[in-house]
Amino acid sequence: MRFDDAPERFRAGNTSDQFSGASGVLFEQAMAQTRMAICLCDPHAEDMPIVFANRAFRRLTGYSEDEIVGRNCRFLQGPETDQESVARIRKALETEDVVVVEVLNYRKNGTTFWNALHLGPIYNDKGELVYFFGSQWDVSDVRASRAEEQHAKEMARELSHRMKNMFAVISGIVNVTGRVRGIQSEAAEINARIQALGRAYETTLDEASSGSIAIGEAIRAVLSPYDQDGQRLDLRGNGVSMPFTTISVIGLVLHELAANSTKYGAWAAEGGKVEVKWGLSDDGESLVIDWIETGGPRVDPSAIEDGTGTAIVDRLLSTGRGSINRTWNESGLNAVVTFPAGAN
């Protein structure tokens, strides 16, 4: 490649004086041909002017060669440029140090871009400072992604706080209504469902901004209160993530299974245990949860299948295009819950 991108004043300037002939040519070619936006400033001239800006620099800023060369780099700054970033740049120049700083710059047309500026000194073979080198990288998209991610996290925290308050208020209303109407047991049953939903959401809201949530965290949150001694629940699953909207259905379904086990199943008997396994189906299109009870008393399946909890589970799953298959073994209930992996 011929060195035809640098301005005449730079080609005929002092690179040959500052570097040996061969190294000077290679240096000039590297500066000119790289796709990274690059400029060189003369630290020995008044106001440290730009003496070279390659094609990528001109394309990034929108300025022509004649509008760049001879000016200090500060002409890219504007009203919103952070002065702390400018101070870091100034200090690096004074101390001949290397610095990487993100600074808001302005193009010729007035539009802004976030510039990841890599600034550093260049020395000749004698160790003498000859240039300051600046490479520019437009990181506006990266900054926007960071801002969106931070905003999403802040919104998730606020949502978590509001939902906790909402569950607390609803729970309080249910308790008061139950006492006034003399239906405390019914109110307690409703509150148990409300609390199960709250536990499912509480551990997952911080992940909601990503659009998917590790289902295992919700399962553990819903079921852990039923295993106070840590001996009656065995959880086995992988890192399956599901859409945020799936949490409410899975949380309530597991709560109903747990409540049923506490009243009639394995957890109603001394030494009874529940194993819960989850993972994706072989085709990857469904979440499959196995609920396996052992050590429970013999029960009448018809009595349970006609109960309110069973109706709630069936209704929830049908609404979300899921299903449940119950098998009553001598040792307890084995239920297989299937739910579409992409359900919304």
UniProtKB/TrEMBL annotation:
InterPro entries: HATPase_C_sf, PAC, PAS, PAS-assoc_C, PAS-like_dom_sf, Sig_transdc_His_kinase_HWE. It comes from the Bacteria. CDD domains: PAS (cd00130). Pfam families: HWE_HK (PF07536), PAS_9 (PF13426). Residues 50-96 form the PAS domain. Its EC number is 2.7.13.3. PANTHER family: PROTEIN TWIN LOV 1. This is histidine kinase. The lineage of its organism: Bacteria, Pseudomonadati, Pseudomonadota, Alphaproteobacteria, Sphingomonadales.
